[in-house]
Amino acid sequence: MELNSYLKHHLGRVDKALDTYLPGESVLPPALHKAMRYSVFAGGKRLRPILMIAASEAVGGDSELVLPVACALEMIHTYSLIHDDLPAMDDDDFRRGRPTNHKVFGEATAILAGDALLTEAFILLSHPEVLPGVAAETRCRVIHTIARCAGSQGMVGGQVVDMESEGREISFPTLEYIHTRKTGALMLASIQAGAMVGGCDEEAFRALTRYGEAAGLAFQIADDILDVVGDQALLGKDVGSDQQRGKATYPALLGLEAARDRAVELRDLANEALAPFGERAEPLRQIAHYIVDRTS
Amino acid sequence: MELNSYLKHHLGRVDKALDTYLPGESVLPPALHKAMRYSVFAGGKRLRPILMIAASEAVGGDSELVLPVACALEMIHTYSLIHDDLPAMDDDDFRRGRPTNHKVFGEATAILAGDALLTEAFILLSHPEVLPGVAAETRCRVIHTIARCAGSQGMVGGQVVDMESEGREISFPTLEYIHTRKTGALMLASIQAGAMVGGCDEEAFRALTRYGEAAGLAFQIADDILDVVGDQALLGKDVGSDQQRGKATYPALLGLEAARDRAVELRDLANEALAPFGERAEPLRQIAHYIVDRTS
């Protein structure tokens, strides 16, 4: 397989499905649905949905079945970006080269668009007609897994500790706490939900969990590194913003070389966990490489 | 039955259950869990959870079974209050006589505490051990109903239109749109979820839906009226704040007397829907009266 065409193919599928599942711009209230769609269709790479599809394929699942779940996860990811960018949080004016949600729609609508996207994810995940082939028991497990990863001891918890740590010296365990939760938790949820909907057994679930944990952390370390050495034009955001904000990062704590080594080590660890899946895990394998080597 | 002791009894049960289901203040990150608990335990009347318990009892359900669902709904209600109070929204410094969440914990933590409470509700609703007696199919239906009522075409949608309407002349249909969604939707969800978990048939579900729609709207009209004629000390908030903000209300659009008549009419409509349930619906009946006659 060729990774670029794999990513492009599934990005197209995910975008089309998101367009189907999100309420249209003319649905009342239009201002809210416009704001929700503005950020969902802001040029995301759909990495989390594609990870979910690839995990489902690795256990022999039908990727058509997992598509709505993948869209729900992307809605949660998008809500977290909208809220992260708010003036009270990171106060970012641009994301991927476009004005952030609150710059276009105002702060109040941006907060509510985030709230609505998070809620919409659970509307979709519990929809009786959208997931006809997935047993209710499995749907509940998927909802539980995704909600836990997104909640106060997952993504939101990571964001709180990240904010608390700005401008402070923090320990390595605190840095790992932030990274495994703020970004890692939702990536792990993608992998685990894909495995569940794909119909995995316990052993496969454990192996893919190891992959998801390692790949999620590798992704965030690569992100930290890109913030130091990345190309501003490719990234669509300012380079050096972590340092400016006094954010704790892997390069800041370990140095650039050691951070790179750690990312490569985690990538290899992730891929070792894929051994039992053979050829079917090839997309996951290549995505782990992509995560560490990407330039944006 | 005596309504006051009924309300007090179930308020105690709900508070105790909320304390069990919410992560403790020492759970990482403590600042977040403190902020979440601060607003959940800010002296709410637990009207929505109690409506859910009463609806479950009306169809012969076990109120023990519905308690976690009732707690999840109260978490969603609390998140909506935290976000409504934010500077970018209603900019309120006090609620029920205590400083609002962002005044105590800062704006960023308040936003995240709201996000985490909304997410926590879905963690709870999908928990495999907390709802052992409720079939997964029913849990999915309950999640779907609650999420829809809370989402972009429910509560959040109502909040957006409410904001858009501030300081403007609005039509009566727009006012009803706001009221049935901003407050009504979550009260309807309480009733419907209680009925589902209680094991109702289709006919009972439709009857209780009629009750929930009417009682929810009556509640908001009574709220509008209290903002004009209420006792500031009993309410724990400023009287006349709707008018100051140029908010559209029933008294402003219809006049005080006609608004009162409409609330009483809706109360009677709600109670007519309870006829088939006999004695078991006595709590719901008395709550409808309480909703319209309350002083705080």
From TrEMBL, chains A, B:
InterPro entries: Isoprenoid_synthase_dom_sf, Polyprenyl_synt, Polyprenyl_synt_CS, Prenyl_diphosphate_synthase. This is Farnesyl-diphosphate synthase. NCBIfam families: FPPsyn. Keywords: Isoprene biosynthesis, Magnesium, Metal-binding, Transferase. The keyword Electron transport does not apply. It comes from Desulfuromonas versatilis. It comes from the Bacteria. Belongs to the FPP/GGPP synthase family. Its cofactor is Mg(2+).
